[in-house]
Amino acid sequence: MFSRSKDKDTDTKAAAPAPAALASGSVGRRPNARTAPSIISNDLVVHGNLTATGDIQVDGTVEGDIRSQSLTIGEKASITGEVVADDIVIRGRVMGTIRGRRVQL
Question: How far apart are CA 70 and CA 57, in angstroms?
Answer without folding.
Answer: 8
